[in-house]
Specification:
Layout (H helix, E strand, L loop, with lengths): L2 H7 L2 E4 L2 E3 L11 E3 L2 E4 L5 H10 L41 H10 L7 H8 L12 H11 L27 E2 L35 H14 L10 E2 L3 E3 L3
Parallel strand pairs: 5-6
Antiparallel strand pairs: 1-4, 2-3, 4-7
Length: about 240
Amino acid sequence: MATSLIAQEKGMVTIKRGTYVPLYGTTDKKPVEVKTFKIDVYPVTNEEYATFLKKNPQYSRSKIKRLFADKSYLSHWKSDFDYAPGKNNAPVTNISWFAAKKYCECQGKRLPTMDEWEYVAMADEKRIDARTKEEYNQFILSWYEKSKTYNNPIGKTFKNYWGVYDMHGLVWEWTSDFNSIMLSGESRKDKDSDKNLFCGSGSVNASDLMNYAAFMRYAFRGSLKASYTTRNLGFRCAQDVPK
């Protein structure tokens, strides 16, 4: 897709209210309701983030406080406001949760919740929920095996049912509640988190290969802290819909 076409399409789409059964979070497997909201069509790009930094220099690489981002924050950029040549339309990565949250707030938006993100991400080109399709899961798993997809421009993966690109195949993405993913109570709103994710207990519910693609996301998010940054982790914004 040409850069000019992406620029024309940039914006948000409305995700209509619905329910889904998450891989984790409800021991009784009851559906979780996702209320109507908006989400960015694409992940935030280097160019967009550089524009934000020029207006909010306190979040630039040399000035951000270590409380809000580790030393790898934007470490692949040439300088505070200068990213790699030709990467203006690639997703911004090496971004902490604090920085992603601030960016969204400055746009009058917010980070999507994990349930919102997963609800959108379970759609393929034609179905709201494609998680039982073997080829869909194979696509996701094959991406996990590829390296440096974060160098690719946005909009190169498929356009899903909602009109959203790059939920899979480009970068991992922050959610507002990334650190409350693994919960042991009857509801995700319980506060007893599962601290043994990487000791094996977290994989109990991922007994079939259909769940494995999602389990990898949960495991990755469960390993994060808000100040962490990694080369393959970016974000997109969401927004509430007025009632």
